[in-house]
Write a structure and sequence with these properties.
It is a single chain. The protein is mainly alpha-helical. The protein has a single domain, classed as Recoverin, domain 1, CATH 1.10.238.
């Protein structure tokens, strides 16, 4: 995530995003975030964090077998030479 400075131009946008995010977490519409709602959003966050770990591992795997260093694996060239098939 990139950080930016809060300016008079960006403040309304940021406030709207915060309100929308709060409303998504406040699933019962009470105007408050209770423990169940907080647990739900944290579970979602940590699931997303696990996705980021998987993405890092996939990148390492691609980097290992990407012979021509173009950032992708081609089936015939790289996978065959890696003896993965």
């Amino acid at each position: 995530m990139e950080w930016f400075s809060l300016t008079p131009q960006t403040a309304p946008f940021v406030l709207k995003k915060l309100e929308a995010t709060f409303a998504k977490v406040d699933t019962n519409g009470s105007g408050e975030i209770d423990d169940e709602e907080l647990c739900q959003i944290l579970a979602t966050f940590f699931k997303a964090a696990a996705v980021e770990m998987v993405k890092k591992q996939v990148k390492k795997l691609i980097d290992t077998y990407d012979k021509n260093k173009n950032g992708v694996l081609e089936f015939v060239g790289e996978l065959c030479s890696a003896r993965l098939i």
